[in-house]
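Sorry to interrupt, but I need a hand with the structure work. It will help me judge whether the discrete encoding reads sensibly. Write everything out right here, beneath this request:
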Amino acid sequence: MRKNSPSIIGGACIIASVCVGAGMLAIPIKGAGAWTIYSTLALLITMTMMTLSGWLLLETYKKYELTASFSTVTKDLLGSKINFINNLAVYFVGGILLYAYTTVAGLTLTDLFGSIFGENSTGIWSIIFVFIFSSFVWHSTRAVDRISVLLILVMIFTFIFGVSGLASNIDMKILLDSNNEQGGYTLFAATMLPVALTSFGYHHSVASMRIYYGSEMKAKYAIIGGTSIALILYLLWTFSIFGNLPRSEFKQVFESGGEWQALVGALGQMIESETVTNTIKAFSMAAVLSSFIGVGLGVFDYLADFFQFDNTKQGRIKSWAVTFLPPLILSVLFPFGFVKAIGYAGAVATIWTCIIPALLTKKAREKNGIEGFHIRGGNGLLVALILFGISVAVIHFLDMMSILPVFKG
């Protein structure tokens, strides 16, 4: 272990920042059918499984050099073909998330400052957003640590002020949907799982955490710290929204496109406070930015290893280009729904957040034994993780084909 190892808090903030951007914006919309109790259960189950799968990756990495990445370890243990599939899945999810965050940031900045470049300036704002804030990732992991802590603090303050305005008006009858006349919640609970899984999808950053600390144990604590922060924020945020906006009022949200802007608009009509509405917008922007930087770091390190780009200024420019330019170009040319993008990401993410970690752990234990850093649970945990991942993927595709019931308010 190296001297002056970074604090656990810094690493936890990086992990939390990777998670929080996606979930804060998508969970209340996709969880409206499941409502409070079942949304809470879905988040708790998903957080537990995703934390354990990240720990299993750490166990898999323990016999490798600190510079070894997800790709390196997967290729060594599972072969080139499986590694190729895994690489595609990792890049697809990371790319689609960066694409979604870039699009939402462009739309938000257009809403705030659009008159500077004209009304149809979303693409310009997306470009400005990417070039400014991806520079932290290009600079160093330490820079991401610092900006992540700052953004988490901004999110906490805007969350407190924004949520306090919502929390002060929480109606327990609305929160628990006591006057429910629209049928059960279990019909809609399953369709929340792909979004919930994406909301805890930090696994491409596990190798970065191990490199950062030089220790599996410290990285383990950073992971549980980060996923716990994310879970607490998700629950507080969800309760505040579900306690103010009746389940039946989500019909207006879905008729308006079922996106984040529609939800903020509906909340604004219910709470009638411009200050709270603007604070919520600031919070959502901080959430998108923090997740953009956190996801960007994981994809940046992953692709740098995959393409064997060195850590010089020129090498980092190449890594920056393959990480941020494709999502930016697609965002400018083909912007589409944020929630839909998160759902697709969740389905594909099951490959490298559930299935591959379990298979890697099985192979690593057969090859290297369980000495040293080890996660308890045996083969039962590995099977449960694989089944969970397969179930989430199947649920998404059934939902996409309109086979599962869809809540429309």
